[in-house]
Amino acid sequence: MSKEAYIVATGRTAGGRRNGKLKDWHPADLGGAVLDALVDRSGIDPKVIEDVIMGCISQAGEQSMQVGRSAVMASVLPDSVPAVTIDRQCGSSQQAVQFAAQAIMSGTQDIVIAAGVESMTRVPMGVATWLPAKEGIGEGPWSQKIKDRYGVEEFSQFTGAQMMATKYGFSREDLDAFALESHRRAAAATQSGAFDAEVVPLTLADGTRHIHDEGIRYDASMESLGGVKLLQEGGVITAASASQICDGASGVMIASARAVKDHGLTPLARIHSFSVTAGDPVIMLEEPIPATAHALKRAGMAIGDIDLFEVNEAFAPVPLAWLQVTGADPAKLNVNGGAIALGHPLGASGTKLMTTLVHALRARGKRYGLQTMCEGGGIANVTIVEAL
C-alpha cells in the first residue's frame, strides 16, 4: 500500500468571460487541451495513465454524455484511458483530487488525472433544471418532502450569501473592499508573470493566444464597484462582490511514489491531508468554516501552521466570514486574487485553485497550503498540500 500521493503536473486555462474569448471552444476540447498539457508537462507516456476523474456541474448539452470521457477522446490520451465525470457542485474537481489521492494512497492505482471543465457560455448555469421545467416535466430537483423539511421552496446560493452577510455583520463597503483587493491581487499577479507557468495557452480562431484571465478589472476602484446595482433590494451583495461567470478547464496529475520513481517524474507537492463535511443546506455557503476546523484537527495542525490559503470567492461574505472565524492572516489568503476577479468556472474551480496554490507556495518558498470552497447543498471539501 502506498501512503503518499504526489502532484507531478498542473495546468489551467486562463478564464474566459461569458461570451468572451473561449465562447467558440467546445468544453470537451477545453478539457482535452488541459489533459494534453499535463502529459506534456510531466513528460509521461500517456498510455500509463490509469484514470481521469473530471469535475463538471452542468452535465447537459455539450457537457452531457460523460464529458470526462469526451475530453479524453479530444486529447492525446489513448482510448485505453478511462474517465468518469463527477458532480460535487463547486467542489467537483477538488473532490476529483481527493478521489485520485485515495486511489493512489490505497495502492489501487499509480497515475490518475484529476480535472474539471465548465463552459458557462455554451452550457449556461442551471440549464439541467430549466429544460424539464420548461417542458413541464417533474417537480425540479427538490421534492415537496425536502421543501417541507427545510421550510423553503428553493435552495439558493445567493440567499445563502445574503444570510452570511447578515449573520457576520458585513456591509456593502466591506464586500466591495474585499472585491477590490481581489482585482488588485489578480492584476499584480498577471502583470508580474505569476500565472505564466500554470496557464495552458489556447490558440483562438483569429490565431491569437489566450493566456490572460479576461475578468480582471485593472482599473477597479471603490467608486466603480460602488456604482454596481444591488442584486436584491435591502441586501448588500452586487455582481461585483460575487464570482464571475467563467469558461475554463484545469487539472492536476497525481502519482504514487512508485510511479514517480519508475517514470522519472518530478513531484511538485504532496497531498498531506483531505476531508469533506456537510452542514446546513439553506445557508449552505458557511460550511468551509467548520470544515477547516475539522480538517486541521484530523491533520494535527493549527491555522498558524498553514502558509497560504485558497478559499473560493463564490461571494465575498464567504472568505470574509472564514477569515473572521478562523483567525487566519488575510495576507495569506488568495494571494493572487480569487474568483471575484479571475472567474469561477464551476466544475473546474477545484483543480484551478489547486494549480494556483501549488505554484504560489513554490514561488514563495512556502510549505503548507490549504484549499476549501463552499458547495451547493451545504458541503465543503478541504485539501492540505505540502509543496516540494
Structure description:
The chain is an alpha+beta fold. It has 13 helices and twelve strands. It has helices at residues 27-42, 67-73, 92-106, 127-134, 144-150, 157-168, 172-192, 222-226, 257-263, 288-299, 317-326, 339-342, 349-364; strands at 6-12, 16-17, 51-55, 83-86, 111-119, 202-203, 209-210, 246-255, 269-278, 308-311, 368-375, 379-387. α3 crosses α13 (349-364) and α10 crosses α11 (317-326). The protein is globular. 53% of the residues are buried. This is Acetyl-CoA C-acyltransferase. InterPro entries: Thiolase (IPR002155), Thiolase-like (IPR016039), Thiolase_C (IPR020617), Thiolase_CS (IPR020613), Thiolase_N (IPR020616). It is an enzyme of class 2 (transferase). Keywords: Acyltransferase, Transferase. It comes from Sphingomonas crocodyli.
Net shape: globular
Mean pLDDT: 96
H/E element sequence:
EEHEHEHEHHHHEEHEHEHEHHHEE
Specify the biggest β-sheet. Answer: 10 strands, mixed
Radius of gyration of CA atoms, rounded to a whole number? 20 Å
How many strands in all? Answer: 12
The helix-and-strand class reads: alpha+beta
What percent of residues adopt helix (DSSP H or I)?
A: 25-40%
Taking the alpha carbons of the first and last residues, their distance comes to: 22 Å
Please tally the helical runs, counting DSSP H or I stretches of 4 or more residues: 13
Low-confidence sequence ranges = none
> Roughly what fraction of the amino acids lie in strands?
15-25%
